[in-house]
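Q: Sequence in, structure out?
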Amino acid sequence: MTSARRPSPCDLTAARDKTIPDVAAPGLRVLFAGINPGLYSAATGYHFARPGNRFWPALYAAGFTDRVLRPEEQEDLLPLRLGITNVVARATARADELTPAEIRAGGRVLTAKVARLAPQWLAVVGITVYRTAFGQPGATTGQQGQTLGGTRVWVLPNPSGLNAHWNDSALAAEFARLREAAF
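A: Exactly. Output:
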């Protein structure tokens, strides 16, 4: 699917439970882990693809990229030593469709992925999914005391446009705190 055409309702229905490939390689500076692909992302094949998702603008505002990348340019992150994966691989319409057991299982898969790829930082994008996936009920955003092997862990706010707890500037500031720590 090209970026010019939005997924149709049929495309979105067909995307349920699909997975999308990681944008990842060994030796990344930061591996961002979303909750799971939404139907829009699964239909297009691109992470954080839904219009209104603030991931790409937050990366730019925080200084990770020199411009706002489009989701279909996600591979441009690799030369910057940045990557994207998900805690849970399967696509759903809403994150609340995931069970706690599924999220904990996703945390184990992500831990193995981090061991294999050895990024300097794992940035989990969503406090609630981090708390569940890694058994850290009192965690807050920011750098965590927990490490995964030699990989440090940071929790970022969910950049979904539905996350009203974080306005655009506060979201960008939190992403910038990670960038300052990682670079």
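The chain has a mean pLDDT of 93.
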